[in-house]
Amino acid sequence: MDGQGLPGGPFEDVAPLTGGTQNMLIRFRRGGRGYVLRRGPAHLRARTNEVLRREARVLAALDGTGVPAPRMIAACPDETVMGGAVFYLMTPVEGFNASVTLPDPHAADRSVRYAMGLNAARALSALGAVDHQAAGLGDFGRPGGFLERQVGRWRSELESYSALDGYPGPRIPGLDEVARWLDAHRPATWRPGIMHGDYHLANLMYSYDGPEVAAIVDWEMCTIGDPLLDLGWLLATWPVDGDESASLAGPLGAAGGLPAADELVAAYAERADAVAGRDLSSITWYAVLACFKLGIVLEGTHARACAGKASAETGDLLHSITLGLFRRAQELIAT
């Protein structure tokens, strides 16, 4: 921090932040300024440092845009400074995660919750409006063939789970039907842009004072791809009464009063610069792909649970959500 010219002095109000399951977040103050340090877990995984470097690069590129996100203060890509871990410092976010808690006025006022839903789509459209080339991210991902390789990529991921002893294989009704439909109805054209990669209510922080999105967080899966898949991801995980996937939204999903899926799409479309060159008439395809992809990701934990490498209770829960996502995909296809 001293080498970066940041304010000096003792470290004060040091406290871990909870909510994530992998990387470490530590909030503190120094020299009259607040910071959040983000680094990988105590036992680093193979790609942790590369993921942190990518996150830091994207957050730095978003500075000066209208995207609600933590702002980069300083990054340290040098692994030798902190015992092998890449880390960065970002601005603290004053807000709450509505999948964990729902304070007033949000809990008491249905109109506030309704606006929270629309603002989730509007925050995403702000990201979709960013020109990734102008932001210095022209070499950040592999947008060429992005849509074409999605189904095969995730079928291969699902097949890899069979290597885990005790996993009986995917018992997912509709798996082949959904995969065939996705290949047959893939959009012919699309415009690349910055993707968050895991856009749902649990990765949003809301303002304590009202329905505004204070920040989009957890940029671990960010890349350059098709931003409409982020919108599809929001639709795939959107709380629906009686659906297993509603559990992902926690108290906000339980409280209800949220806008319908078509209202989310309309809120996203309010920004002409976000939808220019993007075919919102194909949004059902993106929502089905999001169900397909997320369902396979969650099935991985179920497979590890079958092999004794994860909690059986968690594995069963996530498998039920996977089944719910594939049911939602089949319902979307049928409409």
Automatic annotation (TrEMBL):
Keyword Transcription regulation applies: no
Domain Aminoglycoside phosphotransferase: 14-257
Matching Pfam families: APH
InterPro entries membership: ACAD10-like, ACAD10_11_N, Aminoglycoside_PTrfase, Kinase-like_dom_sf
Keywords: Transferase
GO MF, one example: transferase activity
SUPFAM superfamilies: Protein kinase-like (PK-like)
Protein's name in the database: Phosphotransferase family protein
Biological classification of the source: Bacteria, Bacillati, Actinomycetota, Actinomycetes, Streptosporangiales
